[in-house]
Design goal:
By secondary structure, the chain is of the alpha+beta class. It is built from three helices and six strands; from the N terminus they run βββαβααββ. The chain has a single domain, classed as 60s Ribosomal Protein L30, Chain: A (2-Layer Sandwich), CATH 3.30.1330. Helix content is 26%, strand content 31%. The mean pLDDT is 91.
Length: 147
């Protein structure tokens, strides 16, 4: 039976969206590569996930993911605006796109927390401003009945 305890951790720092693959040229051949910023962020995600797993085996079966994407409040804004943002009255409608952050988190956890992100069947995601930027991740294995 799978261990049904949730796995929770924080990916520190300003959230980064998954970048589109780029095409580079090697000799006369085109080559696809992941942008360095995306690769670096996925590495950070994998490290946070590995630490949270603490030697536990990869999750199998369906999982629910809860993500709280916390964006830094821009320093250029007024004191009043910052207070409103931290109170949840102003929303971060700026890059990175929420779906690109989700994709980076999911891809960074493949082979670290779960076998593959196809296992995600439920998700709850919020993107808000906060004092400390980062992505709070909680992954809960879902009980599956035997076929």
């Amino acid at each position: 039976m799978n261990d049904l305890k949730p796995v929770s951790f924080l990916v520190p720092g300003e959230p980064v969206g998954k970048g589109r693959p780029r095409i580079g040229k090697v000799g006369n051949h085109g080559r696809m590569f992941t942008p360095a910023k995306t690769a670096s962020y996925e590495g950070l995600i994998a490290m946070a996930g590995t630490t949270a797993m603490a030697g536990r085996t990869l999750l199998e079966g369906a999982v629910m993911v809860e993500l709280r994407i916390v964006m830094a409040v821009p320093a250029s804004k007024s004191k009043k605006w910052k207070a409103q943002a931290l109170a949840g009255e102003v929303f971060p409608t700026k890059k990175p796109d929420m779906d690109n952050v989700i994709k980076a988190i999911y891809d960074g956890l493949n082979g670290v927390v779960w076998k593959d992100d196809v296992q995600v069947v439920d998700a709850f995601v919020r993107k808000r401003y906060g004092e400390t930027p980062g992505v709070h991740v909680k992954i809960t294995p879902l009980l599956q009945e035997a076929a």
